[in-house]
Design brief:
The structure is a homodimer of 452-residue chains. The first copy, chain A, is an alpha/beta fold. The first copy, chain A, is built from 14 helices and 18 strands. The first copy, chain A, has a five-stranded antiparallel β-sheet with strand order 5-15-16-17-18, covered by helices on one side. In chain A, strands 6, 7, 8, 9 and 10 form a five-stranded parallel β-sheet that branches. Chain A has a four-stranded mixed β-sheet with strand order 3-2-1-4, with no helix packed on it. In chain A, α2 runs parallel beside α3 (136-148), α2 (94-111) packs across α14 (441-451) and α12 crosses α13. The longest helix of chain A is centred in the N-terminal third of the chain and has 18 residues, at 94-111. The first copy, chain A, is globular and about 65 Å long. The interface between A and B is large, with 71 and 71 residues.
Chain lengths: 452, 452
C-alpha cells in the first residue's frame, strides 16, 4: 500500500540504484526493483539499508546505566555489579518496567535498531509470588516495544537455581524463578495473546546452565516444541571465567562443550556471549549453525573478555549484536568495538574481514544483520520480498558520509564519527523515526524521568 | 562583562550549587562563587563542567575517517594505513586544509572539546617547496580553530628523516620536512602573528625519534627555549611495537627510556601514546611530570595496543586524551574506551580508580581535564578565577542523566548512552554551541562537503 523510492539501497551483498520498494498493508515488502520508475512513490533522500536486529536486551537495566561505574570495597567485578542490579530490581513495579522499556526501545529505534530479542527474566512480584496475570511484566515489555514501533521477539527466561548442581536461588533472584510448568504457562499465554501480531514473536531463554539443570532444560525445550518447533531459544553462556571454572567442576566439561553435547543446539539457538571457548568449541559451535550473540559494549563494561572472532569467522560461524545491559544503545558502537577489541589484542588492523568483502564495516554490518535476523526468528535483516519493511535511511548531508558510497559508506557509518547519521527509520512498514525524532519520544522520556 | 548563574557546577574535586561565574571582556573568569545571588546574571539550566582539552589532533585526517577500514592484500597494519594517509596528503591544498580543519573543530566544539593541541606536520607544497608564506598551512589551521571558537595550541612538527639513524625521508613525506632553521622560522612567524591572541598558543612537536635525530632535537629545543622557555613540546612515542624494536636496534634503549635519558623531559612535555613501556619506563615517565597523551579510539583503530594505565595511575602520572586521527570526535568515547580496554584485558571492572574518588567516570574526566590543560599549556581545565571561561552545559532533560547528580552525573555522562548530552558550550567567554548547534555549522559543513 506504500511504495518507497530511493537513489541507492543495500540489496544483499551489493548496492542498487533507483530502487523502488513496494510494501503491503501488513508491513511486508512485496516487491523490490532497481532502476525503477519513481512515479507515485514516496521519495526518500539518502542511502537505505536494512534496520539492525538487536539480539540481546534486558530492558529494565537501561535505568541502571551509569550507576555502577564506581569501585566498591575489596575490588569490583561482574559479580559485584550483579549485586547492584539485584538491589535495583527489587524496587520495580509493572508501570516502571513499562516506562523504562519504552524509553529504551525509542532509543533503539533512533539508533537504527528495528527489532529486539528481549531476554526477559523479571516475572514476579518482589516476594516471588505471581502477578494476577503471571505474564504481567512480559505484556508490559511487549506493549512498550509496540508503542516504540520496533519488532520484538520476547523470550521469557527460565531461571530456577542459584548455581551449578541445582543450588538454591538467592534472595535477590526471587522475582526471576519458575519451575517448568509455571514457565511454560507464561509462554503459552503470550503465544495466545500475540498469535496474530506480525511484529511480535515468542520464544524462550533458559537463563544459563548455572540457573537451570539438565532435567529442567530438557522439560522446557520439550514443552516449547509441543507449541512451536521453530521458536527461538537463547541462553547466556561462558560469559565469565568463573562460570567456566564452576561448570568444569560440576560436569567435567566447559559450558559451550557441555551444551553442544547435551542439548539439540541448532540454527534456532542463540548462544549469548560465548566469550570463553577453546578452539574445538569455536569450531563446533560454528558447525551447529547457531548464532553467537555478541554484546561488545556490555562485555567490555563488565570485564568479560574478548570473543574468539577471527577463528569463529574462519569457521563460518553466524553472529549478531545486542546492547544487553544498555550501557550504550548503538549498533555502531557494538560493531566498531567488536572489531577494535580484536585490533588491540592482535595489534593489527581490519581483523573481521572475510572472503566476502574487504570492507570491514560493511562486512560486520551484513554479518550482524544475518545473525540478528536468525536470532530474532522473524523475516527481517534484508530488503527483499517477503521481508518486513524494516529499514534505515542514512542522512545524505551528514559530514561523516560526505563523498562515500556503497560499502565505503557503510565503512564510514560504522567507523567514522560519533554522531549518528541515522535520519529516518521504518519498522513493519511504518515510519517510527523521522529526521532523527521518534513521534512519541517526548511523552516516553517524560514517563521515564518520572520513573527514575 | 558577563555573569553566568547555574544550579550546579563542578569546582575542582567537588560540586557546588547556586554558582555564579563572572567573566571579563577577554574571556577569562574573574570570580566564581557558590550559593550566590542570581540577579543580573544569565541563567543556565543544567550542570556546568569545564570543557575538555583535546591534546592530540592531526586535523586533515578528519577527511580520511572511514576510508581505510578495508583489508589490503598481504594483511593490514598501522603501516599500510600510513600509506593510505600519504596518498591522501598529496592532494590537499591550503583551502582544503582549512575547510577540513574548520569542520573538525566545529565537531569538537559540539562534542564538548573547548581547546585543541594541533600536531601539525603538513607544512609545504606537494613537491616539498615552501609556500610563499612558509607558515601558510599553520595559519589556515589556526584560523579554522578561531572560526570554530575553540582555543588552539598549535604545534608545528619537526620532521626530517624516514627512520632511526637519520634515514632519508620517503617520497610521501616531502610535505612534512624541515631542517632546524626552516622549522624555527615557522615557529617564530606564528608567535609573532598570534602574540596578543588569548586563545592561541604556539609550541612545537618533534614528530618522533624516528623522524628526527638527537642533534636535530637538541637544536630545535634550544631554538624554542630562546623564544619561550615554557612553550609546550609534544612528541609521538612508542606507539607501535615495530618502532620500539627499531629504536632498540638503533640505540640499545627503548623509546621512552631513550627520551627520558637524553632530553630535558618535564611538565611542559606531552608524550603522545607511550603505549609500549616496561615497568621502569612507566614509573620514570610519571616522575618527570610530563603528560601521557592517550588517544584510545585511534590507538584501537590502528591496533597499537593498550597503555599501562593502572601502573601509571599508581605512580601518579599525568594524562590527557586526544582524538588524533579523528576516526571519532568525542571525549566520551575516548574516556569510556580508555577504561573498557583495561577491563577487557584484566577481566575486572572499574580499573581507573584512584584514591581521589571511587567514581570512575568522574575521575577519568578530572584526570583528562588536568592533563589536557597541562598539555595545551593554557589556563583551562577548571572553573576558577584566572582560567579561560571554557565550559560545557549538560542537558538536564537528557534521559541518560535523569536522576543523576554530582559525580554520579559524570559517571553517567562518560558511561551511559550513545547520544551526547552536551547542550551548550562556551570557550573563551563566548557561546560557541547553543542547544547542540554551532553558529557556523551549516556553512562549515557545506565547505567541507565540497572539499571531500
Amino acid at each position: 500500500m506504500t511504495d518507497l523510492f530511493c537513489d541507492t539501497a543495500m540489496l544483499g551483498a551489493g548496492w542498487a540504484t533507483g530502487v523502488r520498494i513496494a510494501i503491503d498493508a501488513t508491513g511486508s515488502i512485496t516487491a523490490i526493483n532497481a532502476n525503477a520508475d519513481p512515479r507515485g512513490a514516496e521519495r526518500v533522500a539518502g542511502a537505505v539499508i536494512p534496520g539492525m536486529p538487536n539480539l540481546h536486551s534486558h530492558a529494565f537495566q537501561r535505568a541502571m546505566a551509569g550507576l555502577a561505574e564506581r569501585a566498591g570495597p575489596g575490588g569490583d567485578s561482574f559479580w559485584t555489579w550483579r549485586e547492584v542490579m539485584y538491589g535495583f530490581v527489587r524496587r520495580l513495579g509493572p508501570e516502571q518496567v513499562e516506562a523504562i522499556a519504552a524509553q529504551l526501545y525509542v532509543e533503539m529505534a533512533k539508533a537504527g535498531y528495528t527489532a529486539v530479542a528481549e531476554f526477559h527474566y523479571l516475572h514476579h512480584q518482589p516476594d516471588g509470588s505471581a502477578y494476577a496475570d503471571p505474564a504481567e511484566l512480559s505484556l508490559r515489555v511487549i506493549e512498550a516495544a509496540r508503542r516504540a514501533g520496533i519488532g520484538i521477539t520476547h523470550l521469557p527466561v527460565l531461571y530456577r537455581h542459584g548455581g551449578f548442581g541445582a543450588k538454591p536461588a538467592a534472595e535477590g533472584q526471587r522475582r526471576f524463578l519458575n519451575d517448568a510448568d509455571r514457565f511454560l504457562g507464561i509462554v503459552e499465554r503470550l503465544r495466545l495473546v500475540y498469535a496474530d501480531i506480525h511484529d511480535v514473536r515468542i520464544g524462550m531463554a533458559p537463563h544459563s546452565l548455572r540457573a537451570t539443570s539438565p532435567e529442567l532444560l530438557a522439560d522446557a525445550i520439550a514443552g516449547l516444541e509441543r507449541m512451536d518447533r521453530s521458536a527461538p531459544i537463547h541462553i547466556h553462556i561462558a560469559e565469565q571465567a568463573k562460570e567456566v571454572d564452576e561448570c568444569v567442576a560440576w560436569s567435567g566439561a566447559r559450558p559451550v562443550a557441555w551444551l553442544l553435547d547435551h542439548m539439540p543446539v541448532g540454527a534456532r539457538w542463540c548462544l549469548v556471549h560465548a566469550t570463553h571457548m577453546v578452539d574445538a568449541e569455536v569450531v563446533n559451535l560454528a558447525r551447529t549453525g547457531a548464532v553467537a550473540g555478541l554484546c561488545p559494549t556490555t562485555e567490555a563494561n563488565l570485564g568479560d573478555g574478548l570473543f574468539a572472532l577471527p577463528a569463529y569467522l574462519a569457521a563460518h560461524g553466524s553472529l549478531g549484536i545486542g546492547s544487553d545491559s544498555h550501557i550504550s544503545v548503538s549498533p555502531i558502537e557494538e560493531l566498531r568495538w567488536l572489531e577494535y577489541g580484536q585490533r588491540l589484542a592482535r595489534r593489527e588492523r581490519n581483523v573481521a574481514t572475510t572472503v566476502a568483502s574487504p570492507h570491514v564495516g560493511a562486512e560486520l554490518y551484513r554479518l550482524a544483520l544475518a545473525g540478528g535476523a536468525q536470532a530474532v526468528a522473524r523475516p527481517v535483516g534484508s530488503l527483499a520480498p517477503g521481508q518486513r519493511a524494516d529499514l534505515v535511511v542514512l542522512d545524505p548531508d551528514h559530514p561523516s558520509l560526505a563523498g562515500r558510497s556503497g560499502d565505503t559508506l557503510l565503512d564510514a557509518f560504522v567507523f567514522a564519527g560519533n554522531t549518528s547519521p541515522v535520519r529516518h527509520v521504518m519498522a513493519g512498514g511504518r515510519w517510527i523515526v523521522r529526521d532523527g525524532r521518534h513521534a512519541h519520544e517526548d511523552a516516553v522520556a517524560d514517563a521515564y524521568r518520572r520513573t527514575v
